[in-house]
Amino acid sequence: MGEIALAVVLLAGAGLLIRSLFAIQRVEPGFDPRGVLTMRLTLPPEYRNEGATLFFRGLIDRVRRQPGVRAAGAASQFPPMGAFETRFQLEGREAPEGTLPNADITVASRDYLATLGAPLVSGRGCSAIDGLTTPPVAVANQAFVSRYMAGGSPLGQRIALGGPAGDRRWTEIVGVVSDVRNHGLIAPTQPEIFVPMEQQTVWNQLFLLIRTDGDPGALLPLVRREVAALDPVQPVYAVRTLEDALAERVFPQRAAMTLLSVFAAMAVALAAVGIYGLTSYAVDARTREFGIRMAVGADRGAVVRMVLGQVLRVAAAGAFFGLGLALVLGRAASALLFRVSPGDPLTLGGVVLLLAVVAAAAGWIPARRASAVDPSVALRHE
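RE: above sequence
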């Protein structure tokens, strides 16, 4: 019973995580992660003011001209890593300093959204006309518009980003981009605004994103060569594909599923061996009883059913306690689950059915051996 209860807990955990991973894989991220190589560059302090912008603008232009490159852009963050936030003031909706709303903020080149594959819904994106001498502009995602600007068109509205109240610059929203899963496939999309890289002077650390039709990793030597052409001592690091970045966010679920699956397989094997051994011992100890039963008219099928019934009763008791424990532990681990409840009847029912089949299979051989007892031999056994 204990082995079966443990097997139920482990199988239920593995089954719930497997269903969660399948649900995660069906989530639409809002962009196309295939064929995108990402890397990070941190420029030294001498790239002040417009120096960083000129460096990244030149690097993007050089990389974009390489064979096989479809698009290239730079940004301070990219999905699923929403790390930077800012507070903001909506024009005409004054609020106390401590109650200002907040949103993710991404400094992005004018090529970033196209490289990511996030389509514009309305208005325009960051363009070549946006610079330090032009009025500040921003692009908002649909989550931002739905939460803070519901009931009206966001285009032309202004927000003041960060800084003390008297030091904020009013920024006009010139476009709306479709939502992307900016905090991973599991977390809901957060409000986000994109400001042009060309209008910033304080960001010296950006990610370079390159979209290609071929193997993204094959572009790395070409990118390193172009970086070296601009600055021979500038390192490129944190190199990975966009698909890898998304996969890393579900690593806890994947690792837990693998670990539980291994332990569940071991628990099922131990339960099967335990059932077989216990039933075999019981059959040997009851050889004379089976002989008497068959001598007074019991057929082979009745003996098999009797032995298997006892096996399944033990299995049912173990499964009952295991299900109770699985429900308790499932609620404690619900943070790892996605679109599936700890008490999912399909998963728990499948676990019980699997263990019933394992228990019946483990008890079948001893049960068949019990039904094959010769009554005359069994009565002479002692």
